[in-house]
Amino acid sequence: MRIRTIVLIVAIALMAGFAALNLDEFTRPSLLSLGFTTVQAPLGLVLLVLLVAALLVFLATTLYIQSAHLLETRQTSRELHAQRELADKAEVSRFTELRSYLEAQAVAANQREATHATVLTERLAQTQQAIAVKIDQSGNTLAAYIGELEDRLESRDGVRRAPVRSDTPPLI
């Protein structure tokens, strides 16, 4: 319990003890003025009843304030919980959107890679074809030079040999 509650309980107990010890004085009648009339009543008892009434009013006010505060706290807690759920859903939505964006970027990157691979393959095939053509041309040119050299050698020796086919490999 809080210190205020303990002090309040002790004060009430002391007042009750004081009233119990002096009950004769509290109940002794006396003449009381109400402003427009006078009444004969026990002054101590009237004051004790007024004290109890004030105490009950203050307790009721305290209970009302605490219950209102409790209700407000619960309302705030519910709203906070709803806002937290909304934020979680928004975060999940952002993660989902980010994942779809990354997947789209990955697909686009794969398509670019496939396009580049296709272009590279085509260029490689063209280069290989160009190299094959150059090799054939070089082979033909070399065969022509060799044939010319053979013709020169034969014409210089005066002996004609049988022509060598360029498409068959020479025997070594």
How would you summarize this macromolecular structure in one to three sentences?
The chain is mainly α. The chain contains three helices and two strands, in the order H-H-E-E-H. The mean pLDDT is 88.
**Quaternary assembly:** single chain
What's the end-to-end separation, in Å?
115 Å
Shape descriptor: rod-shaped
Order of helices and strands: HHEEH
Flag low-confidence runs: none
Number of helices: 3
Strand order of the largest sheet: 1-2
E-strand count: 2
Helix content: over 70%
Radius of gyration: 58 Å
Q: How much is the average pLDDT?
A: 88
Biggest β-sheet strands, sense, barrel:
2 strands, antiparallel
Structural class: mainly alpha
Q: In what range is the share of β-strand residues?
A: 5-15%
Organism: Polaromonas eurypsychrophila
Transmembrane segments: 43-65
Keywords: Membrane, Transmembrane, Transmembrane helix
Protein name: Signal transduction histidine kinase
